[in-house]
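Input/output pair, single chain:
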Amino acid sequence: PPSIPSPESPAAAHAGRPATLAGAILHEDFARRRPPPEPEPEPPPAPLQDEFDNPYLCPYCAAQTQPDDRKCQACGAKLWIKTRRREERSTWLWAALTVQMAGIIWPATVPLLMLVYAAHEVEIDNPLTLVPAYLGLPGSVPPKVANAAFEVMPRLYILAFAFYLLFSLTILIGLYLRWKPIFYLFLISALLALVLGGAGMLLGQGVGLICSGGGVILALLMFLLLLQLEDDFFLDEKRILLRVDRSAKKGLDFLASGRRYARRNMWATAVIHLRRATSWLPDWIDGHLELAVAYINIKRYDLAAQALAEARRISPDDPQVAELTALLDSLRPQT
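Output:
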């Protein structure tokens, strides 16, 4: 949104720059103050019916926009955002993480068991001495013995499990971070688990056969989880509308929302919240001053003057009233 020229007064200079203005008015100057206790619960004030009741006004500068506009023509702000369909990680996602972690254990275990079996068949005491041979690296195992081990347990089979182990670790990290490509890689991971598990059942023996059967079961569970995980990974694009937060119910709620939007330079959205805050807390000066600041940043100088008049009524000698009044006078067109 457009910046506001700064007068000589330090406090007013803060008000002239949207980002620091929010910091000065909403944090520094009023950090010492606390709003008065809210009155006993009563029917909330009637909604304000005015120019800001149009949800398609720009939430930053309050300029008129069309529902399909991608950006505000007046201030250049983006009017569409992408948000997750599900903000928090679902129970199904945590279940998928658990299954994926279990899926890392079995491809790490099966090759070790296969190495033990191959070492036993070729009469080697330490199965780990076969690892360099399977990876194509120099080692202490004679080539003749290594070739005999390859006949017992094919080299390609061991390498396939090693690749799948690294792949599964990548999937585990991506699942937790909810990377969209991981959704599809998770599908590939389930297919690989099914293929390798089936191959393990055909080639394995004893404990290796049992572990491979467990891998097949895990692969089927991964397929079932995929059906529940779509909302965790996919984003929906939605228009930013000028409307009050549904969670805001009382004066302090509206005040907190107004301050939050002011920090994001969404001044029009801050206005509609601060207006309601001042209707709940009409004798608290800070709310009126913050509302005046928001009006100034969307160039509604007449409304800013009204907000400052209310602040002056509450505390005629407040220095912030004088500083913002001087800023407002410098911004108004000279007649």
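The chain has 14 helices and two strands. The longest strand covers residues 80-84.
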